[in-house]
Design a protein that fits this description.
This protein is mostly helical. It has 14 helices and no strands.
Length: 312
């Protein structure tokens, strides 16, 4: 029924905003800027919860073969780059600015599909990509809190997001479900980030973190891990219950809601020119979603085959 689709979309939006705000709070307000530890904690908890849920039969997860895990390894590497660089960028950027730069991941995906795979695209998509790129290029010139380091991490983040999106579609490991792919991502990320925690100095620096014994800090870290796992389940439910077109639309609306609500929770510094860049970027993303409707409609049966149903 139609009302059930709205409930699924609203549930996803609530968890998307809650997860985004919780991560921003820990990274920016509490200033826990140690991504090897923070993201390692999140991915470790996510992997454990997925493993337990699969073993108990609450989630449908098949046994992952070694060959399937190895074929998905490039995606896991891109996932680590995504969350690591994303944490660095989000800790230093306001949410509207971060999402505007993140939208440029569509440009990366467009270039890969255009140059490597030679795919032809409609004129509206070309126009949307052009506006997304123009907004991202002009944003640093008008951002009142511009910092080269944060933009460098944001470029790494959007590059990994765009490449991961293309790899997920083009990968020969498409027989893996979304949950199985994410389990490999979580497990690989937790092992890699745990190994890198000491060489990067994050482990020793975190021992001197002022809020290490704070109740608020512990609650924030636990909430970020649990919300990330629940958001994963909500995302899979959204994709399995709705068409790809509608699930992308709900993700877009959730981002818009997070941007509008962020000034009521965090300190946001923007001016008129940077606001125009933010607005143009998200209008272009909306046009991009609209331009891809025929493609999504053709791919819907395949998309449903790779999205597992959550058991009630």
């Amino acid at each position: 029924m139609q009302w059930r689709r709205h409930v699924v979309g609203l549930t996803f939006s609530i968890f998307f905003i809650s997860s985004c705000f919780t991560n921003k709070y820990v990274l920016s307000v509490l200033k826990f800027t140690y991504p090897t530890l923070f993201q390692g904690w999140q991915t470790c908890i996510g992997a454990l919860l997925l493993l337990v849920s699969g073993k108990t039969g609450w989630l449908e997860m098949s046994r992952i073969t070694r060959s399937a895990a190895l074929s998905w390894l490039p995606g896991s590497i891109l996932f680590v780059g995504n969350i690591y660089a994303g944490s660095r960028a989000l800790s230093r950027m306001d949410i509207p600015i971060f999402f505007t730069l993140q939208n440029s991941s569509h440009v990366v995906g467009y270039l890969i599909l255009r140059l490597v795979h030679g795919e032809r695209m409609p004129w509206l998509k070309h126009f949307s990509i052009f506006v997304l790129l123009g907004s991202a290029i002009n944003l640093p010139f008008y951002d009142p809190e511009f910092e080269m380091g944060s933009y460098t991490w944001a470029i790494g983040h959007l590059s990994c997001v765009g490449a991961y999106r293309v790899f997920k579609v083009q990968s020969r490991s498409s027989h893996l479900s979304d949950l199985e792919q994410q389990y490999i991502n979580y497990l690989f990320s937790a092992l890699l980030l745990a190994t890198a925690a000491h060489p990067t100095g994050d482990l020793l620096a975190a021992l001197d973190f002022p809020s290490l014994r704070s109740y608020t800090f512990h609650c924030g870290c636990c909430a970020s891990a649990l919300l990330g796992f629940v958001l994963l389940l909500a995302t899979v439910k959204l994709r399995s219950g709705l068409s790809v077109e509608h699930s992308r639309a709900w993700t877009f609306l959730a981002k818009i809601a997070a941007m509008f609500l962020s000034p009521f929770v965090f300190s946001v510094t923007v001016n008129a020119p940077s606001s125009v860049c933010v607005l143009c970027s998200h209008v272009a993303e909306g046009l991009l979603i609209y331009s891809e409707r025929p493609t999504y409609d053709r791919e819907r049966p395949a998309a449903h085959q790779t999205c597992p149903q959550l058991q009630s």
